[in-house]
Write a sequence for this structure.
């Protein structure tokens, strides 16, 4: 017996159930009906991502506008494989765009999202203090910077040239974690 949530509960009940479940979890919950091209998305997901409303009728177009540009081809191929029955489960790791246009990793393998700060983490203002601790190396992690931008930042942190990032956070450094 292969029934979807809409067929079992109806549109309105599915929407109410989605919000009840969404309130009990930290994830951004959504239910997609690919055959009927519609989606229900929790209010918390609507608040976070570039989605226009909680009840989406043209899900294929709406989702593609939210999927990070570099992931769209992979995502489209996977969703077509699901629709064609070649894949049984929506089981990929890709990115959606948040309201600021920044990528958020969506891991459908384990039903979780990786949320990065809206601005990069940078400890450049503390580099002398960090170097003073006798460290021989500093690790730089990049998420979606271009190769040119990553090389520029690496030279900056090496003290060779360049300017500090315009917009950044120091995260919990010197603030402690509760």
């Amino acid at each position: 017996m292969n029934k979807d949530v809409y067929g079992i509960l109806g549109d309105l009940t599915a929407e109410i159930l989605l919000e009840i479940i969404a309130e009990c979890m930290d994830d951004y919950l959504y239910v997609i009906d690919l055959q009927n091209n519609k989606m229900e998305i929790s209010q918390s997901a609507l608040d976070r991502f570039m989605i226009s409303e909680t009840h989406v009728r043209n899900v294929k177009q709406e989702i593609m506008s939210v999927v990070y540009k570099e992931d769209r081809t992979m995502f489209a191929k996977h969703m077509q494989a699901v629709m064609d029955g070649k894949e049984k489960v929506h089981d990929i790791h890709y990115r959606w765009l948040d309201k600021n246009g920044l990528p958020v990793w969506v891991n459908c393998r384990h039903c979780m999202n990786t949320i990065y700060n809206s601005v990069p983490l940078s400890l450049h203002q503390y580099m002398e203090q960090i170097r003073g601790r006798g460290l021989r190396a500093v690790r730089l992690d990049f998420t979606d910077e271009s190769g040119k931008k990553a090389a520029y930042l690496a030279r900056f942190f090496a003290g060779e040239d360049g300017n500090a990032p315009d917009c950044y956070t120091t995260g919990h450094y010197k603030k402690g974690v509760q």
Q: What stands out?
A: The first helix runs from residue 5 to 9.
